[in-house]
Design brief:
- The protein is of the alpha+beta class and about 120 residues long.
- The longest helix has 18 residues.
- It has a five-stranded mixed beta sheet with strand order 2-9-8-4-6, with no helix packed on it. A four-stranded antiparallel beta sheet has the order 1-3-7-5, with no helix packed on it.
């Protein structure tokens, strides 16, 4: 009986260790989450951080040339912060930039609104 119990315990330990391998593909469907999906900033130039949680490789694509993302991509699952750097708004009207966060087949849109120049 002791041999059977030790054998079963050994098998369970081996199964637990191999099930958590880093080489395994990400479980489940593509997943991506942003802590917030919109922000409003002043008309001056600046930066804002956006926190991303994903289980796939990912990319960030601003839809306006006045916004840049760093880093603009990652190759692993995890929690990341992308810094959006934006230029000063020269206009007397507010402006908006959509920023696409994509991972696998999943896309989340972040909206950055910049106030008008005073």
């Amino acid at each position: 009986m002791k041999t059977l119990t030790k054998g079963m315990l050994s098998l369970l330990c081996i199964a637990a260790l191999t099930a958590c391998s880093d080489d395994d593909p990400a479980p489940g469907p593509d997943s991506m989450h942003l802590y917030t999906t919109e922000s409003t900033v002043d008309a001056t130039e600046g930066q804002i951080g956006v926190t991303l949680i994903t289980n796939r490789s990912w990319t960030v694509t601003p839809q306006s040339d006045w916004v840049k993302a760093t880093p603009a991509s990652g190759t692993e699952k995890g929690i990341y912060e992308t810094i959006l750097t934006y230029e000063a708004n020269p206009d007397a009207e507010a402006r908006t930039c959509k920023v696409l966060f994509a991972g696998g087949t999943y896309t989340v849109t972040y909206t950055l609104t910049q106030k008008a120049r005073q």
